[in-house]
Amino acid sequence: MFERFTKGARATVGGAVAHAERTDAGTVSEEFLLLALLDQEGGRAPFALAALGLTDRRVSVEAALAEARRRGGMTRADADALADIGIDLGAIVSRVEETHGEGALGGDRGGRRRWTGHRPFTPGVKKILERSLRIAVGRGDRFIGEEHLLLALTASPGVVADVLAEHGATYETVSGALYGDGGAGQDREAG
């Protein structure tokens, strides 16, 4: 599949790996794909992100991702669902952090060991890559660009899609920024 990636899409995937390495993460997650997209200059996805104001609000995006990491990767919808049955996720996070330190639920970061070589993609990233292919094919595009990766991030339920939506970047708004009003929704991959 990578032979179908444009130079920008390859740079995004490489940037995601670099973000994982810099933070000493054991895997490359969807969060790193988003951060790599925000790093890009030129190209369709950076244009859409700038048009939607996300490049100007990068600090806010990073803070929202950090907060989700602190919650153990649970989305706001997950927290709300737990609250509906009487479970206060904030209180649980606080108790865990009292015992095990700040960011204890943050995943696989933290220098337990130095990684050398290959960092695997999470199952979520693999789904994003597959979905980006389906989006590209659905649009009639021969190659997978960084814009398809961005659309796949918005279309895949989870923390990154929630953070993007909180900042005004839904599948529909990104599609509109990329393709104009006529492109919104026509190519959304449902699964």
From TrEMBL:
One Pfam family this chain carries? Answer: Clp_N
Q: Which GO terms describe its biological process?
A: proteolysis
Family matches, as InterPro entries = Clp_N_dom_sf, Clp_R_N
Q: Which domain of life is it from?
A: Bacteria
Molecular functions (GO terms)? peptidase activity
Record domain Clp R: where: 2-184
Q: Is the keyword Protease in the record? A: yes
Name-wise, this protein is Clp protease N-terminal domain-containing protein
Species per Swiss-Prot/TrEMBL record: Streptomyces poriferorum
